[in-house]
């Protein structure tokens, strides 16, 4: 579509756009109200003047008539404006004269398109809607926005002004082109096409990290906000008028006073204006199909999120209320029944069963009732607790043609209690509500953000909304993602209010994610920047030699923190191969301390414990026994840190298969199918496998680096690890045996560590060459690496110091000087 | 678009599309009244018992078993019919009112520019 076609299409809105520029809608609204008030004031004064004769009555009568006529004028102008303004509003209930509204977003596009500037980009950026869109995209970052679309920010930002002032090219009428079939929203298509054709505009947006996805999303959101505002204002439309409950709707059906004691109509119990906003159309259609197909059909909604199940049923109720439902379901009333509360109120089995049967009988007799029991497993448990079998009581009604039930269950209880009960599961048609994908999560967040903006006067930027959706999906996997995302959304206004602001930006979301998960997701600060750039140096303060390991880990962590690594895998994964005592575990500890800030961030699993038949059950948990898995519970508690898999080669083959998936996708399922996130972990598997091969190469003075492939092939050949598993790791690192120089350095490091511990007791350890030489001499066992040195420190040095402390030879402030002779004693 | 063409656009709208808007709104209100008073549903269920309150006939024939429930059920149907008839009549009256209001507004709308000028003129004359 070229400019001419677009302008012709939107020409009908030109008078409204012009009117808005001559007399902005806010000003018109103010004047209209003011003249109406004045009319009444003058009327009141003129009536009073008749009695009190203070001033001539005629003057006030005249002023009253003038005010009335001016009010009429503004009324007509508003009617004229509204007629065009509401023209592109999609209507749910068709109206006699407006069956096909204009394309969504047409009016907004017109406000951005019409103007005197030869450059279409300039027209767009100078228009109120253009400024508002930029504000939603955090351009500029520090401007105070107004959430009001009709009366948006009036001051232009310096960044945008500078950009327009220095712009070298223009997008003229003749050049502008847009693709008609890009999407459903005209405004979204228009801004996307503009950015695509104006390289300078797209570069300007890119400086703020705004790409087509963000631009389109924000434009769509803005358009939807405008649509929502129109829908609320258009009180004379059938969509609004049809929501008034009618008289006599239930006269043909039975009374439900028993049911009303323990339940309520959905529209009375839940806020229909802010919930069930149309994001579950697919499931609503399924419910409609099941309930209308068979009169004895019942529905079981399976989802972990109770709110989501409610939302689906609310949407279904809205469909009934709107009258756009299949005839068999017309005039049906959905009642939310709380069976758990019923058991509490009744207190004992007899009372409960009597009341329950009363409720069910009356509901069945009414013939227009659909019962909604949100948490069926809890209801069963509550009834069982007082000795009643609610399922047997409900059984006749479940197959009754006059009463239908929509029940809800979470996934775990569905598998455990309902699916296994064949008689029960046959009565229900199961509908599993899948976790929201990121796009529908963004839409849900947009809707809730609108509510918060209207309620609390807060302003959410669009990148903030996207960031919430992304972080919720990435860092809260395994939990109900939409719940977590909505929690964050409602906590953010409070967090920014504490800082005296009312704008929620992407940065605020990153800060909150970091607070909640411990995973740093925001911008890299100076101190962290320096640490990341000098990782190798910092790691080498603790690790002697092993350059390959240190370099591989450092590169991997830098990639992870900069955000350029794949988001669907762990932060990093390494297999450390080498003889014992050469620094594999020490490297892991150093990594945890340097990158994660604490050595305790290591979650260690001794994989030799997972070598039996029940290895997988021990790791993932068992559905039958209810036993919780070690790995799943460990990762649910700490999703950010280092997972150390010691002696990895000793684990069963199914365990290796499990890690194939974890290393590949960063995610796996527990015993009940719940997802567990491993994407914020560095996974390090250590193994002594292949030590003999490494030793052989070292003895022959061959370089391990040069012969790495050969060594790995031999390990595969010995069937220790399968090649596909080795390939899943980011790196297979060979640890060299330590030579004497390295052992001396290790001994010095260990002594320094001991010295720090002794310092806490106010003792000073003198570390001399003699002491180091002694340790290397007693600790140089090639088969055990540096481990004997550690043992020598414990057995000999620490023991000697302890003896001297107890005997009083050493006291706080003493210097500990140890000779070889002291230690040999 | 100049301010002159804005005024022309307004008058073109006032004497064309505005009438469609007025009658669209009017039909919306008629539709809302029709549904508020549940006219189609009440007519469809005109002879049903009030709130399904009926008594079952007992087993075996006896005067009590037959006439008792017959009287109660007839009464319940009569109550239902009377209540429905009242509501349907009220609904029809409201529809006539809304329609008449629509006609009145249409007539006023035709003369509104004249009314505006007259009111303004009269107002200034009084001052």
Low-pLDDT segments of chain A: 146-155
In total, the number of domains of chain B comes to: 1
Instruction: Write down the domain tally of chain A.
Output: 5
End-to-end Cα distance of chain A? 95 Å
Mean pLDDT of chain B: 89
Span between termini of chain B: 36 Å
The run of helices and strands of chain B is HHHH
Overall outline of chain B: rod-shaped
Alpha-beta content class of chain B: mainly alpha
Strand order of the largest sheet of chain A: 1-3-4-5-2-6
In brief, what are we looking at here?
The complex is a heterodimer of chains A (825) and B (127). With 825 residues, chain A is of the alpha/beta class.
Structure write-up:
The complex is a heterodimer of chains A (825) and B (127). The longest helix of chain A has 29 residues, at 57-85. The radius of gyration of chain A is 36 Å and the shape is globular. In chain A, the strands form five sheets. Chain A has a six-stranded mixed sheet, sandwiched between helices. By secondary structure, chain A is an alpha/beta fold. In chain A, strand 12 and strand 13 (675-677) form a beta hairpin. In chain A, helix 2 packs across helix 4, helix 37 (740-759) packs across helix 38 and helix 37 (740-759) packs parallel to helix 39. Chain A has 40 helices and 17 strands. Chain B has one domain. Chain B contains four helices and no strands. Chain B has 127 residues and is mainly α. Chains A and B meet through helix 2 and helix 4 of A and helix 1, helix 2 and helix 4 of B.
Chart the SSEs and their pairings:
The complex is a heterodimer of chains A (825) and B (127).
Chain A: H1 3-10, H2 14-22, H3 25-52, H4 57-85, H5 106-113, H6 120-126, H7 128-136, H8 158-165, H9 186-197, H10 199-207, H11 212-233, H12 238-241, H13 257-262, E1 263-265, H14 266-269, H15 281-293, E2 298-302, H16 306-322, E3 333-337, H17 339-346, H18 349-366, E4 369-373, H19 376-385, H20 390-398, E5 403-409, H21 411-418, H22 422-427, E6 428-432, H23 438-456, E7 459-460, H24 462-475, H25 481-498, E8 503-504, H26 506-517, H27 526-533, H28 535-540, H29 547-562, E9 572-577, H30 584-596, E10 602-606, H31 615-620, H32 630-637, E11 641-646, H33 653-665, E12 667-669, E13 675-677, E14 681-687, H34 691-699, H35 708-717, H36 723-728, E15 731-734, H37 740-759, E16 764-765, H38 769-779, H39 787-807, E17 815-816, H40 820-824
Parallel strand pairs in A: 2-5, 2-6, 3-4, 4-5, 7-8, 9-14, 9-15, 10-11, 11-14, 16-17
Antiparallel strand pairs in A: 1-3, 12-13
Helix pairs in contact in A: 2-4, 3-4, 6-7, 9-10, 9-11, 15-16, 17-18, 17-19, 18-20, 23-24, 23-25, 24-25, 24-26, 25-26, 37-38, 37-39, 38-39
Chain B: H1 3-14, H2 17-36, H3 39-44, H4 63-126
Helix pairs in contact in B: 2-4
């Amino acid at each position: 579509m070229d400019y001419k076609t677009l302008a012709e299409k939107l020409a009908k809105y030109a008078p409204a756009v012009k009117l808005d520029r001559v007399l902005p809608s806010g000003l018109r609204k103010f004047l209209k109200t003011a003249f109406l008030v004045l009319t009444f004031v003058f009327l009141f004064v003129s009536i009073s003047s008749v009695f009190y004769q203070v001033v001539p009555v005629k003057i006030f009568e005249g002023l009253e008539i003038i005010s009335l006529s001016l009010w009429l004028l503004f009324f007509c102008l508003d009617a004229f404006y509204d007629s065009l303004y509401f023209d592109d509003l999609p209507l749910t209930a068709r109206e006699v004269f407006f069956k096909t509204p204009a394309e969504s977003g047409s009016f907004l596009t017109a406000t951005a398109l019409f103007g005197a500037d030869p450059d279409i980009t300039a027209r767009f950026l100078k228009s109120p809607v253009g400024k508002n869109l930029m504000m939603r995209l955090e351009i500029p970052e520090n401007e105070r926005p107004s959430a009001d679309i009709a009366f948006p920010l009036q001051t232009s930002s310096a960044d945008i002004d500078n950009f327009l002032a220095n712009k070298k090219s223009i997008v003229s009428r003749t050049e502008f082109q847009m693709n008609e079939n890009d999407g459903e929203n005209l405004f979204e298509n228009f801004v996307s096409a503009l950015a695509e054709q104006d390289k300078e505009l797209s570069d300007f947006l890119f400086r703020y990290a705004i790409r087509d996805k963000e631009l389109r999303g924000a434009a769509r959101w803005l358009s939807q906000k405008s649509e929502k505002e129109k829908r609320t204002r258009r009180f004379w439309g059938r969509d609004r008028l049809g929501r008034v409950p009618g008289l006599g709707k239930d006269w043909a059906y039975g009374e439900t006073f028993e049911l009303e004691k323990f339940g309520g109509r959905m529209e009375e119990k839940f806020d229909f204006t802010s919930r069930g906003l149309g994001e579950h159309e697919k499931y609503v259609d399924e419910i409609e199909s099941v309930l209308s197909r068979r009169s004895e059909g019942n529905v079981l909604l399976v989802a972990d999120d109770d709110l989501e199940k409610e939302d689906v049923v609310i949407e279904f109720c809205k469909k009934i209320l709107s009258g756009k439902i299949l005839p068999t379901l017309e005039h049906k009333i959905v009642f939310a029944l709380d069976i758990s509360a019923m058991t509490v109120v009744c207190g004992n089995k007899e009372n409960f069963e009597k009341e329950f049967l009363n409720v069910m009988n009356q509901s069945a007799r009414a013939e227009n009732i659909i019962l909604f029991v949100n948490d069926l497993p809890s209801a069963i448990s509550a009834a069982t607790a007082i000795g009643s079998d609610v399922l047997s009581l409900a059984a006749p009604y479940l197959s009754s043609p006059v009463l239908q039930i929509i029940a809800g269950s979470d996934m775990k209880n569905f598998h455990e209690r309902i699916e296994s009960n064949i008689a029960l599961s046959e009565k229900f048609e199961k509908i599993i509500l899948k976790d929201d994908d990121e796009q529908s999560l963004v839409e849900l967040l947009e809707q809730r953000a609108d509510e918060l903006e209207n309620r609390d006067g807060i302003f959410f930027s669009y990148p903030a909304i996207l960031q919430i959706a992304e972080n919720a999906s990435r860092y809260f996997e395994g939990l109900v993602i939409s719940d977590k995302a909505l929690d964050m959304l409602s906590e953010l206004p409070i967090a920014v209010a504490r800082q005296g602001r009312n704008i929620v930006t992407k940065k605020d979301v990153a800060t909150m994610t970091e607070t909640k998960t411990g995973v740093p997701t925001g911008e890299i600060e100076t101190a962290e920047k320096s640490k990341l750039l000098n990782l190798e140096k910092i790691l080498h303060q603790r690790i002697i030699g092993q350059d390959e390991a240190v370099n591989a880990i450092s590169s991997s962590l830098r990639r992870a923190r900069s955000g350029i690594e794949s988001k669907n895998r762990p932060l990093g994964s390494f297999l450390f191969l080498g003889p014992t005592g050469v620094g594999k575990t020490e490297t892991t500890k150093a990594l945890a301390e340097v990158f994660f800030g604490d050595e305790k961030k290591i979650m260690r699993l001794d994989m030799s414990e997972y070598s039996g038949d029940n290895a997988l059950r021990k790791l993932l948990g068992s559905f039958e026994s209810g036993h919780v898995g070690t790995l799943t519970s460990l990762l649910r508690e700490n999703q950010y840190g280092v997972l150390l898999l010691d002696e990895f080669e000793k684990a069963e083959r199914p365990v290796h298969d499990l890690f194939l998936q974890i290393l590949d996708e960063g995610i796996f399922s527990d015993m009940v199918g719940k997802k567990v996130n491993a994407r914020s972990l560095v996974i390090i598997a250590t193994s002594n496998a292949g030590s003999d091969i490494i030793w052989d190469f070292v003895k022959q003075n061959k370089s391990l680096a040069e012969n790495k492939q050969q060594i790995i092939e031999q390990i595969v050949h010995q069937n220790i690890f399968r090649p596909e598993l080795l390939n899943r790791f980011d790196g297979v690192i060979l640890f060299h045996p330590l030579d004497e120089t390295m052992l001396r350095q290790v001994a010095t490091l260990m002594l320094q560590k001991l010295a720090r511990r002794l310092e806490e007791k106010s003792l000073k350890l003198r570390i001399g060459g003699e002491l180091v030489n002694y340790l290397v001499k007693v600790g140089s066992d090639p088969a055990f690496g540096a481990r004997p040195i550690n043992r020598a420190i414990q057995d000999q040095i620490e023991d000697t110091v302890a003896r001297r402390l107890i005997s009083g030879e050493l006291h706080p402030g003493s210097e500990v000087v140890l000779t070889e002779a002291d230690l040999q004693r | 678009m100049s301010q002159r063409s804005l005024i022309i656009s307004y008058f073109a709208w006032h004497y064309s599309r505005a009438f469609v808007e007025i009658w669209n709104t009017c039909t919306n209100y008629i539709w809302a009244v029709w549904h508020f008073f549940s006219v189609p549903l009440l007519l469809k269920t005109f002879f049903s018992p009030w709130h399904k309150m009926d008594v079952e006939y007992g087993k075996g024939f006896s005067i009590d078993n037959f006439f008792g429930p017959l009287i109660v059920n007839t009464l319940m149907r009569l109550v239902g019919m009377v209540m429905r008839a009242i509501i349907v009549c009220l609904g029809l009256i409201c529809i006539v009112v809304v329609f008449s209001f629509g006609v009145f507004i249409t007539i006023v709308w035709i003369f509104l520019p004249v009314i505006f000028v007259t009111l303004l003129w009269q107002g200034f004359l009084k001052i």
